Amino acid sequence: MADSPLYNALRHHLSLGRSSFHTPGHKNAFLPKDLLSLDLTELPDTDSLYDACGPILKAEQNAAQLFGAKRTLFSSDGCTLCIQTMLHLACPEKGRVLCSRRIHRSAVNAMALLGLEPVWVKPQELLLYLHSPVQVNACYVTSPDYYGRVLDIPALAKACKEKGIPLLVDNAHGSHLAFTNPDLHPLHLGASMTADSVHKTLGVLTGGALLQIGDEQFLKNAKSAMALFGSTSPSYPIMASIDLTVKWLSEHPNAFESVEKSIFKLKEKASSFSIPSISDDPTRLTLDASSHGYSGEELAEFLRKNGVEPEMADSRYCVLIATPWNQPEDFERVEKALELFSELPQKEVLPSDSDLPELEELPPVVLPLREAVLSESHELPVEESVGAICAEAACPCPPGIPVVMPGELILPEAASLLKDYGFSTVKVL
Question: I need a labelling partner for 155 at 20 to 30 A (CA). Which of 108, 124, 130, 294 fits?
Answer without folding.
Answer: 108
